Amino acid sequence: MIGPSSSAAELIAHLETLRSEENVAAMARFGIVTDRALGISNPDLRAVARQAKKDHLRAMELWRSDIREARLLALYTSEPRRLTAAEARHWADDFNSWEIVDCAADLFVEARLDELIWLFAADERQFVRRTAFAMIAGAAVHRKKESDAAVLGFMPLIEAHSDDARNFVRKAVNWALRSIGKRNLACHAPALALAKLLAENPDQTARWIGKDAVRELGDEKLLARLR
Q1: Which residue intervals of the chain are DSSP H helices?
Q2: Which of 4, 66, 75, 111 is the most core-located residue (most Cβ within 10 A)?
Q3: Looking at residue 79, what is its pLDDT?
Q4: Cα 215 from Cα 124, distance rounded (Å)
């Protein structure tokens, strides 16, 4: 039986009992890196996390296992208030999957490690750069009490990296822009303005990001909701 006192080794042993080769094959079709995967679904992993509870030091051990599910469990059971920028950077060195990145970005936003957004955006590694824009998207959506000025302060990063054609980066840049624009009316106007500017950009990637964002941010139902 697993619980708050379970060690990293005990949790990994429990995860091994939930292995599904069929799920591993399915995950690969969604672009999830499966070299070290057990094939456990995210809902099942979250159920394990609820039983295990938060334990920051144990989360560090889980991460070192290099097993997909153990790393996700590390992200689910880490303690945001204890997570340091150095620890987050160390984890980012191992990022090799959009799934891990997006989960980690939520944790980093909750831990308020905003200084990493600028650092990660400047990093040439695809999944590290994606983390920056996943964090921007998360901050725009989840930080209801954050000033709009703080959120809009990330717009120059979106414009600067709108020409990164790598799939997992361009989609995250687009995601960040759309998330800012959907935050509220105050953020909608500048986000839509940038989207329209990018839609006319001679660069193919920037143009795709802009046109896709214009399509969503210009929707009348969205505008009605924001009003």
Answers
A1: 8-17, 21-28, 42-52, 56-64, 68-77, 85-92, 98-110, 115-122, 126-142, 148-152, 155-160, 167-181, 185-199, 204-217, 220-226
A2: 75
A3: 97
A4: 29
